[in-house]
Write a structure and sequence with these properties.
By secondary structure, the protein is of the alpha/beta class. The chain contains twelve helices and twelve strands. The protein has a domain of 195 residues: Alpha-Beta Complex (Spore Coat Polysaccharide Biosynthesis Protein SpsA, Chain A). A seven-stranded mixed sheet has the order 3-2-1-4-9-6-10. Strands 5-12-11 form a three-stranded mixed sheet. Strands 7-8 form a two-stranded antiparallel sheet. Helix 7 crosses helix 9. The longest helix is centred in the middle third of the chain and has 14 residues. The chain is globular and about 60 Å long. The structure holds 2-acetamido-2-deoxy-beta-D-glucopyranose (3 copies). The site of one 2-acetamido-2-deoxy-beta-D-glucopyranose has 3 residues, from loops.
C-alpha cells in the first residue's frame, strides 16, 4: 500500500500521455481522474488503514462440530469489518479420525481456509491448549506472519467484537495477558484468566513453545495451568482483567445480558445461541422482501 504514490517519476512520465488524452479529459473528467489517480492516496490515508494490532483467534472445537462452525462463521463475519484491527479466526482441533471428516473438513479448508489441525488426539484438559500455543510459532514463522496477540476461545462462546477489540486497543504488545480473571480475590492481578476467552501476547506464546515450565506440566485444567506457567516464570506482567464482561449465559431476559458484553459463554445448544443472538439484534438489519417471510 505504502509507496504506491511515492514514485513521482512515474507521474512525470505520464504527463505527456495525459496531454494526449486531453480530449478524453474534456469529454469525461471523472473517468479520467479515476483511471489515473484512483490508486494514489496520500500517505495519511494508507497509514490509517494499517491495523493497530494483529490478532489470531483460535476457537478450540472438535472435528464433528460442523454445525457450530457454520454458526460461528456467520456470527463473527456479520460483525465485520473490524476497524484498524487485523483479526484472523481459526477453528482448532486434533487429528481427524474418519474418511468422512477428511472429505468434509477438506472442503471447509478449501472454502474457508479457517482450520488448524494440531498433532494430537482429541481432549480438553489433556494438553490441547498447550499443543495449540506451542504449535503456533512454527506455523506462523517470520515477522510478516506473526501476530501481536493470540486468543484461545471455545465454540460455546459468543464474542461481541466492538467491545472486545476496543478493550484490547492501546494495550502493550509484550508480556500481556488479558481475560476474565479468577479467582475473584485478586482482581488487580488475578492468578489466571478463565477458559472462555483469554489472550497472550506473541512473546508469551513463543515462551510457551520453548520453556520447560509448560513442557513439564502440559496436562491439567487449561486455563488455570496457563496462569500457573506464567506465574512460575514471573510473566504476564501486563495483566488486564475484563472480569464481569465475560460471563455465562444467565437466562432469556434482557437483564441477563450486560450492555458492554465482551463474551457470553456456556452457549451449549441452539436455544441458548438463538436467545443470545436475538438479544444482540443480529438479524435486525434484514429488509422485507417478497423472497422470504418469518
Ligand atoms: C496425527 O496425525 C499425524 C499425521 O497423520 C501423525 O503423524 C501423528 O502421529 C498423529 N498424532 C496422534 C497423536 O495421533
Ligand atoms: C446472573 O444471575 C445471577 C443470579 O440470578 C446474578 O447474581 C448475576 O448478577 C447475573 N449475571 C448477569 C450477567 O446478569
Ligand atoms: C436492531 O437493528 C436494526 C437495524 O440495524 C435497527 O433498526 C433496530 O432499531 C435495532 N433494534 C434494537 C432493539 O436495537
Amino acid at each position: 500500500m505504502k509507496g504506491g504514490c511515492e514514485n513521482k517519476a512515474f507521474l512525470l512520465l505520464i504527463i505527456p500521455l495525459a496531454i494526449m488524452c486531453t480530449y478524453f479529459l474534456i469529454s469525461s473528467p471523472n473517468n479520467f481522474q479515476f483511471l489515473f489517480f484512483s490508486n494514489c492516496h496520500p500517505n495519511e490515508v494508507s497509514d490509517a488503514d494499517l491495523p493497530d494490532f494483529r490478532l489470531l483467534i483460535g476457537i478450540l472445537t472438535v472435528p464433528n462440530n460442523y454445525k457450530r462452525r457454520n454458526l460461528l462463521r456467520m456470527a463473527y463475519d456479520l460483525q465485520r469489518p473490524f476497524p484498524r484491527a487485523q483479526v484472523d479466526m481459526r477453528f482448532v482441533f486434533c487429528n481427524l479420525t474418519s474418511d468422512e471428516q477428511r472429505e468434509f473438513i477438506g472442503m471447509e479448508i478449501l472454502a474457508y481456509n479457517d482450520i488448524i489441525i494440531l498433532n494430537c488426539k482429541e481432549n480438553m484438559n489433556d494438553g490441547k491448549t498447550y499443543t495449540y500455543f506451542s504449535s503456533l510459532p512454527q506455523m506462523f514463522e517470520g515477522e510478516d506472519k506473526r501476530y501481536d496477540y493470540v486468543m484461545k476461545t471455545d465454540d460455546d462462546t459468543y464474542l461481541r467484537f466492538n467491545n472486545f477489540l476496543e478493550s484490547l486497543r492501546g494495550k502493550p504488545k509484550e508480556d500481556m495477558y488479558w481475560g476474565s480473571g479468577m479467582p475473584m480475590l485478586d482482581q488487580e492481578n488475578p492468578p489466571f484468566m478463565t477458559g472462555p476467552g483469554y489472550i497472550l501476547s506473541w512473546d508469551l506464546v513463543e515462551w510457551i513453545a520453548t520453556s520447560d515450565i509448560p513442557r513439564n506440566e502440559p496436562v491439567g485444567p487449561e486455563d488455570i495451568y496457563t496462569g500457573m506457567w506464567l506465574n512460575k516464570a514471573g510473566k504476564g506482567i501486563n495483566r488486564y482483567n475484563v472480569g464481569p464482561r465475560i460471563y455465562n449465559f444467565n437466562g432469556t431476559e434482557a437483564k441477563d445480558f450486560l450492555p458492554d458484553t465482551i463474551a457470553v459463554h456456556m452457549l451449549k445448544n441452539d436455544f441458548m445461541w438463538a436467545v443470545t443472538l436475538k438479544h444482540f439484534n443480529v438479524t435486525g438489519a434484514i429488509k422485507p422482501s417478497i423472497l422470504y417471510h418469518f
